[in-house]
Amino acid sequence: MEIVKAPVLKPFKNKEDKRKRYKKDDFFEGTEQRVQELQRLGYVGQYEVTDKKVDGTPLDGNVEEVKSAINADFSKEELEKFLVNEQQGKNRQGVQKHIEDLIAEKNEEKPEGE
Length: 114
Prior knowledge:
Blueprint: E1 2-7, E2 12-13, E3 21-22, E4 27-31, H1 32-40, E5 48-53, H2 63-69, H3 76-88, H4 93-108
Antiparallel strand pairs: 1-4, 1-5, 2-3
């Protein structure tokens, strides 16, 4: 799955990362599915494919690069996949904690409409 980038058309707070706010003319990066959802809601414009992939490549950098690449824009299932890959691969405690924290945030989220 590829990561895509789209210009922000109107300000919003990302539901998947409550700490992150986007303002007009920022760029939002996320999965194609998430960006399409934001497009339907009118928050972002036409997207373009970046050179980033979700197939494990975000784990290839150093700890800070990985923390930057793996964020709350990924689904819980994707984050769990990253965690397993990290545990079976480089097994870096800082990366694992970062991913575990993101998964915990997803577990605390209430479904829309509640």
